[in-house]
Amino acid sequence: MDRDAKLTIIARAVHETIRAYQQASGEAEAPPWDDSDWMQASTRESVEFALTNPTPGAQHEAWCVAKRRQGWHHGPTKDPELKTHPSLVPFGELPVAEQLKDTLLIAIVQALARPLEL
After folding, report:
1. Phi first, then psi: what are they for 27, rounded to 5°?
2. Which of 103, 114, 106 is nearest to 6 (CA)?
3. In the chain, N or C: fewer CB atoms in 10 Å?
4. Could you tell me where the beta strands, DSSP code E, fall in 12-97?
5. DSSP 3-state assignment of 108?
6. SS3 assignment, position 105
């Protein structure tokens, strides 16, 4: 299996785990993997980053940098039209429920990277 296929397996596992976490915590769920082209690309980038930067804080900061590059800024609610997001703050200022998303991502990448030989 090539590296790209392995990254896709991990990214899909991350995506679907975050969806399950959102459901369990009463949040609006992201769309399923097969219905989320831009989220697939974003999650794959997050997995690639996590392979060399395995901390939740670094993961969150990379996400913030990417969002700001796309014109997003901090706001009280997530609004794609206004490009505002309440999570565009330093990792330590996030609610614990939000910090756990980055922690889950790192845990999944670490759990799957070795068996998949990444």
Report:
1. -85, 165
2. 114
3. N
4. 73-74, 84-85
5. helix
6. helix
**Domain coordinates in residue numbering, the chain:** 3-113
Total-model pTM: 0.89
Phi, psi of 46, rounded to the nearest 5 degrees: -65, -40
Q: What is the pLDDT of residues 94-103, one digit of tens each?
A: 999 999 999 9
pLDDT at 65 over 90: yes
**CA Rg value for the chain:** 14
Structure tokens, 13: 């596992």
pLDDT at 117 over 90: no
- 113 by Cβ neighbours in 10 Å (0-12 / 13-18 / 19+) ranks as middle
Q: How far is CA 83 from CA 3, 4, 5, 33, 43, in A?
A: 33, 30, 32, 23, 19
| CA distance readout (Å), 32 to 12, 19, 76, 115 | 9, 8, 26, 25
What is the DSSP code (8-state) at residue 79? Answer: B
